[in-house]
Design brief:
Length: 100
């Protein structure tokens, strides 16, 4: 396989992807989805302890990173439109399933 330079269409797609979906705060995510702190941690790519620190007050409070907020936004968008996403697109983006 020979590497190739991305086309202008591919660069435009990257620009749109980079800006969307906008980051989503954990509090906002929980307004839409009823998940536990453990599940929220899995979705955000962090530990349950980190998630717990997002919701406490005082010196131990932590802010979620931009990466974690973007992950929550992507999950939210995917879950919102799960019925509309074609299996072909899922296979292209995520790879084949174990049963394939």
């Amino acid at each position: 396989m020979t590497a190739r330079y991305p086309s202008s269409d591919q660069w435009r797609l990257f620009q749109r992807y980079q800006e969307n979906p906008p980051p989503l705060r954990p509090e906002q995510f929980l307004q839409y989805w009823q998940v536990s702190y453990l599940e929220l941690a899995q979705l955000a790519g962090c530990s349950r302890s980190t998630v717990e620190h997002w919701f406490i007050q005082g010196d131990s409070r932590r802010e979620p990173t931009l990466t974690q907020r973007r992950r929550l936004a992507v999950v939210h968008r995917l879950w919102q439109h799960a019925q509309e996403v074609s299996p072909r697109l899922v296979a292209i983006y995520c790879g084949p399933t174990e049963s394939s």
